[in-house]
Each structure stands twice: as structure tokens, then as C-alpha cells.
Amino acid sequence: MKTILITGATSGIGKSTAELFAKQGYRIIICGRRTEVLESLKTELSQYTEMFSLKFDVRNLQEVENAINSLPEEWKSIDVLINNAGNAHGLEPLSAGNTNDWDSMIDGNVKGLLYISKMIIPAMKERNSGHIVNISSVAARQTYVNGVVYCATKKAVDVISEGMRLELTEFGIKVTNIQPGAVETDFSLVRFKGDSEKASTVYAGYEALKAEDIADAIAYCVNAPKHVSVSDMTIYPTAQAEPRTIYRK
């Protein structure tokens, strides 16, 4: 039975992915920053499979190292790493940007992905098998006004995914880069710092993707035959033509 580690598993795409893989019978390690939510999800999904939870912040290297090193021996062999944790903060031009927001996005979306991957990859290379799924965004494909830093971090995820593939294919390790379009989760609520009215306008007038849609796509890639490796996947809601263009009713 394969073991899957999912970062940012307490909400949105990460939570839906954990739910889907648990129902498919994989052993799941869920990671996040909120102990109560982690334990609740662990209890809920334990009816389907073996579950383990790790509380840490991917932005903190010491926390990442301590968490991964704390895994019991029977949980150390991770077959699939899903780098889902990330964030978007603020929607201002660079000249008015909040540098704390920039740090949060760069630390979470880029450095956090690197920290956790560095901890997991060596064992995959030793076993000559594994699969890494990185969650990027269509924001990597086209920069938009007032989203420069966020777009840059997601472009970095694309580049890191490509670099991983170049370094790891010879070891039998698959690398998949997923670029979701507009997905109705807490993403916009976080970006607008809890302003639910502003967040709701992002998804008004059309049917956005759901977290479950991205979980389905991830599962397709992970469940593909051994000789099949999905390198990149871009997923839009039907109403979205490109990152900046959504047709609303």
C-alpha cells in the first residue's frame, strides 16, 4: 500500500485530495498548521485507511526537518509527495505592496516547497521510485496586474518542477506540475485577508472549479500506469479562457 504525504491538507485542494486518496485506500500523512483541524480530519478519514498527521509550517525549515524526522519508521517510506501548501496575500501594485505579504508568498509557495522536497527526495532516489506532484497555478502562465509576486512564485513552481524532472527521471521518480485556474476555496478569502464580500466577487457569475476537481486530476496522474508520467496539466473552469479572462453571466 502506497504512502502519500500531502502538505496544506487542512482545507481546499489538500483536504479534498486527502479525502479522495483515503477512500482509494492509500496510507495518508496529512500536514498543516492547525492541530484541531488535522486531528478532526485524521479521525474522519481513519474509517477508510491508515492516517498520520504532522503539524508544522512549511515556511519554517527547522519545523519541516523536525516533523519529517519525527515520522515513525513504518511511515518514513513516502511514495507520493503532494506539494499543495501555498498562499496568496494582497492584490496591490508593487509600489504599494506589503513586504510581509511578499515574504509569506515566497516563503510558502517557493521555499516551503523546496524544504519539504529536500527532505523527501533522498529516500525516493534510494528506492528508485516515487512521485512528486507540485501545485502551481495558471498565474504562472500569464502575469496579471497587482499579482506580480504571487505570479512570480507560481512561475518558480513551474521552473522547480521542470528542474526536478531533469534531475529525478533517471531515478524512476515522476514529477507532475498541476496548474489550476479559478478554484472556489478559501484562496480568495486569504488573499483579501478575511473580507468575505471581496472574496465572493471572484467567483460570481460563473461556475468555478471545485477543490474536488483538482483532487480528481491529481489522482488521475498518481494512478496512471508506471510507464506513464503526466508532466504538466492545466485545468480551467469552462468559463475561463486564460488567467485574466472569465466570462460571467
Automatic annotation (TrEMBL):
One MF annotation (Gene Ontology) recorded for this entry: oxidoreductase activity, acting on the CH-OH group of donors, NAD or NADP as acceptor
Keyword Oxidoreductase included in the entry's annotation: yes
Keyword DNA repair on entry: no
Coiled coil: none
SUPFAM superfamilies documented for this protein: NAD(P)-binding Rossmann-fold domains
Keywords linked to the UniProt accession: Oxidoreductase
InterPro entries: NAD(P)-bd_dom_sf, Sc_DH/Rdtase_CS, SDR_fam
PANTHER family assigned to the protein according to its UniProt record, in alphabetical order: ALCOHOL DEHYDROGENASE
Family: Belongs to the short-chain dehydrogenases/reductases (SDR) family.
Protein name according to UniProt: NAD(P)-dependent oxidoreductase
